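Hi R.,

Here are the chain sequences for the assembly we discussed:
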Amino acid sequence: MTIRSGEVHALLGENGAGKSTLASILSGNLQPTSGSLALDGREVRFRDARDARDRGVDVVHQHFMLVPTFTVAENLALFGATQGVAGLDISPDAVVRDLSVGEQQRVEIARALASGRAMVLFDEPTAVLTPDESQILLDQLRLLADEGRAIVLITHRVEEALAVADRITVLRGGRVVAELTPQQADERSLEALIAGGDVLRDAPNDETHAADEVRVRAESLRARSDRGHLAVDGVSLSVSAGEVVGIGGVDGNGQAELAEAIAGIRELESGTLRTTGRVAYIPGDRNRDGLALMMSVLDNLLIAGHRRKRLRAGPLLPPRRVGEWARAVVQRYSIRPQRTDLPAAALSGGNRQKVVVGRELDGEPDVLVAVHPTRGLDVRAEADVHRVLREAKGRGCAILLVSADPDELAALADRVLVMSRGKWKVSA
Amino acid sequence: MRHVAVLLGLLLTLALTLLAFGLPVLESLGHLWEGALGDKFAIHRTLVKACPLMLAGLGMVVAWRGGMFNIGGEGQLLVGASAGAITYQLLHRVEGPGLTALVLVACCAAGAAWAGIAALLYTKRGVNVVISTILLNFVAIQVVSYLVRGPLQTPGEAIPQTTPLPESAMFLRLDPQSSLHTGLFLAPVLAVLIHVWLKLTASGFQLRVVGQNPSAARAARIPVARTQVLALTVSGALCGLAGGVEYVGVSGYLFDGFSPGWGYLSIAVALLGSLEAWGVLLSGLYFGALLAGSRNLEAFGGTPSAFVYAVQGVAVIAFVALQQWSRRRVERAAS
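And here is the predicted structure of the full complex:
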């Protein structure tokens, strides 16, 4: 790809598309394994981020690189900006820790612009901002580009790219799949490029299932992300027995937080939530939230199973009973190798996921919240998981399926809701 | 097979440490053996030394399995023993086994409460457990120092120590000629209970999951904070009991330097015992023997007994490195 001075260049793609890796290479934090990088027509090799900075390339990270206990002036001095930065509008003596997130970002940007850097990359800068703050930031990016800098905006938000960019590069699976101008694209075509297929979109419509037994009813849910911004912003939905409700949209728009809220592990900011019966939950990141990798397959199955009445004798978990159950689950969900004593870390990704899916669906839950249940799986494992989900639906389980894969949603969901910035996106 | 390897490894680290100190290896090993296992008295000495190590070591197993890296065994042990001495001071009209029981309950409760401070600081405020428990050790050491010079000092005594417990309130002697006492049986009994708890009950299972991956535990709706508080307070109770057993079983009074670092040593005991309850019994005996034997080495071999701490350090580093190495191998094989 090429980046020109005087332009805002949007780098678009979903989580894991390679945006941040590319940014790390461009800013000297990571060495490319192959390929070359030219700056102003001359080939360069950045030794590290400092080297890149010295040559005029800097990056504003998603996670700020400020020292929280230092003042604004001290933070700027740390990066070589000794004189005050015009238009910052924040007292240089303020301690960074006491600033709002938006203000901290302004300091971060001032830092990156210190001593006139020619190219600045912004890694998901609006992720932590309110809509108003985001608008201000995007306007600022435009100004910076008009002053002759090269600005790279890394984002997964299509509307931002369309609003501010001069050119857009779309990444998928680590490759450039398109390079175009906003005039050549619209939201729909960009989303299709990002996801690699048509993104389904539908307005919420509960009427067809009004008569069924409703297992999940959520009214105006609001919930915050781990970083504290409002990730779910007034969402209502209902899921009936035997129904699969798909939640789509570009990843990172509050889907994961909504799923956690409904699974009962994320505190609600406001709104009401009623679920009927046992709620099973398949988290989106199996290695981080699903498994204890150093524990055995048996123990990992027990993470859901240890509460089940029939596996227990009072407070005890009799080893023989538990062992038989675990072997049965391994059989039924065709987990390979068919052993319960290996650490979960010894299993492939697909089989790890089958451990999570198996233990959650065993014992026939009334509600299932599944987040990216087939992400990273090969075709066969994916088919296995889909079969299991269909069986659960057939039994009358109410399923909320969060997926970034339009084919998966089309294959499984009875209806699909699309989330954007924490709200339902109503089709135009 | 594996156990033989561990035993040989321990002997080897011992020999290498002796060598590094420039000591005659075989002769020194002989002194150690004499002091630890040479005759009935040596064996009794080993067992007596092992008592607090095994109990506090069990405490470490509970905390560390729950992911709470308790470094505060020393403080919890001292606060436990102090609570025992305070209980005696307040209730000295009670006598015999009744007093013993009350003293031990107070020791456990105080140790649990001391560890509870760190647990709450962590779950409510995110204060690192390693740091808070270490710092609470220093506070506890000063508390003991104050108590034995102030409110608990025997009236009319010049030496800073508390009034000794009456013989009737002490543990029974198993041998009139040595200090081997009935408190010895507490550790094996508790080891069985803790083993059952951690390995066979739902609550113990939750504790292990929280220790291995708290975010998976959260996703499975296991009460993470509550489990962490439980792990740390039970650990504190066991360390408090270790102090109590030494108080009621051996010394009968509290004094400055009451603990020669059992609380710290218990971490080594737990790690060398692979964080297993039964393993702690074995490694507690090993370190007990080392403590007992080093006295002999000091007397006849002219080596300062601080040597034990060097051996302890070397053994634990070697062992933990080995564990990490095999863990890495599993992970490599996995990816």
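The radius of gyration of chain B is 20 Å. Chain B is about 75% helix and 0% strand.

Let me know if anything looks off.

Best,
T.
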